[in-house]
Specification:
The chain is of the alpha/beta class. It folds into two domains: about 170 residues, Flavin prenyltransferase-like (Rossmann fold); about 210 residues, Rossmann fold (3-Layer(aba) Sandwich), CATH 3.40.50. It has 13 helices and 21 strands. It has an eight-stranded mixed sheet, sandwiched between helices. Strands 2-1-3-4-5 form a five-stranded parallel sheet, sandwiched between helices. It is elongated, with a radius of gyration of 24 Å. Bound molecules: ligand PMT. Ligand PMT binds next to helix 9, helix 11 and strand 16.
């Protein structure tokens, strides 16, 4: 899977830098072409000679010397992936703040390829709010974070902060960047986020959906080769993914129109949005003034988008709905599968801690038409998206 892939490995000053030698060796063994960039302090932990011998390429450390200048822009363009492992607390902070005082940082800031980072630091540094904030910033830039591991640390303490093992990092690269593309040539549409139903010019009926689940599914479908359109309700969460066509909508009616337009040419549709079931019968033209103790709003049903797509669905189209439940979860999910003519229903329950609205995690069960049922534990929404797309591929495109 890594044969011929170009990996740019950035190494920073951390005791875990010794593992970078194994990392380079394993990558080269898998057929990858590896170029190494080191910061000055990384050289205190592992020798450039070791890394250039293992990578079969000169190791780059300086932006320029007396004779030549390292073309940092072209390095970022050369690579299929830039991996920074180990990533020290110091370089993490610089990356989060756009500081550019060495070659590695210049390459990072100009890289057009995807970037993955494998942090390594002592437990207390790992748990510091500044570190968390810097990691969240990198994640919001679209960088992939390879989770740290628990174990013995350089300080002699035992805890979180160890860099992931080289084998784990290689598995992460394969899973995140070099999967085969079983959905190549397929078109997918995904809905995400809430809808807002206006009451007057300043108020609306909405819900707590952030759009994270739908965005993760859209990205995963794209990673597997599909051309993806995302219909996104009013969420402040950024999509940050090149190549996904995003249609922004506000109301259930607007989402209905966008979905019906896109569904005609879609092979796969995944409906993860939390669409309002009711909208105000009349939207007041001016702000409603408070007068009486009680205010009654007359609401009418919105169009059921999933149901309307289920009615139109052609044999070769795959339609996936969600069910967000608080009680009778299984029965309600099965009922939705049938009444909406969906192929799969993804059930999540707000009763499960860490599941549903807003969280970065979710816990799902997928119900299939033929009575199949797949249960998954609580996972990050990215991993949940992978499970959903894996299930679609296994059942319809294997
Ligand atoms: O956005 P996040 O913060 O990441 O949270 C994710 C989520 C909880 C919103 C998501 O995982 C989820 O459960 N989405 C569906 C929420 C929902 O509205 O569930 P429902 O059981 O009310 O609707 C069932 C299905 O019908 C859904 O696929 C929904 O998109 C669809 N629907 C609902 C109403 C409507 N008028 N038209 C629809 O198409």
């Amino acid at each position: 899977m890594l044969k011929g892939k170009k990996i740019l490995l950035g190494i920073t000053g951390s005791i875990a830098a010794y593992k970078a030698a194994y990392l380079v060796r394993y990558l080269v063994k898998e057929g990858a072409e590896v170029k190494v960039i080191m910061t000055a302090s990384a050289k205190d932990f592992v020798s450039p000679l070791t890394l250039s011998t293992l990578s079969r390429n000169p190791v780059l450390t300086e932006l320029f010397d007396e004779q030549s200048w390292s073309n940092h822009v072209m390095l970022g363009r050369w690579a299929d992936v830039m991996l920074i492992a180990p990533l020290s607390c110091n370089t993490l902070a610089k990356m989060a703040n756009g500081i550019c005082d060495n070659l590695l940082l210049a390459v990072y800031l100009s890289a057009t390829c995807p970037v993955a980072i494998a942090p390594a630091m002592d437990e207390d540094m790992w748990h510091h709010p500044a570190t968390k904030e810097n990691l969240a910033k990198l994640s919001s830039f679209g960088n992939e974070i390879i989770p740290v591991e628990r174990g013995e640390l350089a300080s002699g303490l035992f805890g979180e902060g160890r860099m992931a093992e080289p084998e784990t990092i290689i598995g992460f690269l394969k899973n995140n960047f070099f999967l085969t593309s079983p959905l190549k040539g397929k078109k997918a549409m995904v809905t995400a986020g809430p809808t807002y139903e206006p009451i007057d010019p300043v108020r609306y009926i909405g819900n707590h959906s952030s759009g994270k689940m739908g965005i993760a599914i859209a990205k995963e479908l794209q990673r597997r080769g599909a051309a993806v359109s995302l219909v996104m309700g009013p969420s402040p969460v950024n999509v940050l993914s090149n190549g996904i066509e995003v249609t922004r909508v506000t109301t259930a009616e607007e989402m209905f129109t966008a979905c019906n337009r896109l569904f005609a040419s879609a092979d796969i549709a995944v409906m993860a949005a939390a669409v309002a079931d009711y909208t105000a019968l009349e939207k007041a033209k001016e702000k409603i003034k408070k007068k009486d103790d009680k205010l009654t709003l007359e609401l009418v049903r919105t169009k059921d988008i999933l149901k309307s797509l289920g009615e139109k669905k052609k044999k070769e189209q795959v339609l996936v709905g969600f069910a967000l439940e608080t009680n009778n979860e299984r029965e309600n999910a099965m009922e939705k599968l049938k009444s909406k003519n969906a192929d799969l229903i993804v059930l999540n329950s707000v009763k499960d801690e860490g599941a549903g609205f807003g969280h970065d995690t979710n816990k799902i069960t997928i119900f299939g038409k033929g009575g199949s049922e797949f249960q998954f534990p609580l996972k990050s929404k990215n991993e949940v998206a992978r499970d959903i797309v894996d299930t679609i591929i296994k059942l319809y495109y294997a």
